[in-house]
């Protein structure tokens, strides 16, 4: 009889443990989604092209957005991008509704939406790599 009660206890205890381990616990932290690093060539430059930025800020302009080195060098107002610091980068400030000087960019065009601006911010915060 003792063996039967011991066996029943083991089965019940095992079932309870398995149930607890497989339950959906909403307090269990989940891993953050893995995001791909932003690329100048495949993520950023196409934004500049699609919004007409390179028409005014191409290779012959005071501020050229055509290459990463020219973006980091900047123009008369200094570097357009401070690698690793999107919030301090002039390009982000010029895309905002209240830029520190002049007009919001792209001049004469439709303002970039927040999702697109976030892509540029991500690239800058990731180090503004020439990739």
Give the helices and strands, then pairings.
Layout: H1 2-22, H2 40-50, H3 53-56, H4 68-73, H5 90-95, H6 114-125
Taking the alpha carbons of the first and last residues, their distance comes to: 74 Å
Please tally the helical runs, counting DSSP H or I stretches of 4 or more residues: 6
Radius of gyration: 27 Å
User: How would a crystallographer describe the biggest sheet?
Assistant: none
**Oligomeric nature of the chains:** single chain
Q: Could you tell me the strand content as a percent range?
A: under 5%
The helix/strand series, from N terminus to C terminus, equals HHHHHH
Q: Low-confidence segments, ≥5 residues, pLDDT <50?
A: 4-25
Q: Globular, elongated, flat, extended or rod-shaped: what is the shape?
A: globular
Approximate helicity band = 40-55%
How many E-type strands? 0
* Average pLDDT metric: 83
Structural class: mainly alpha
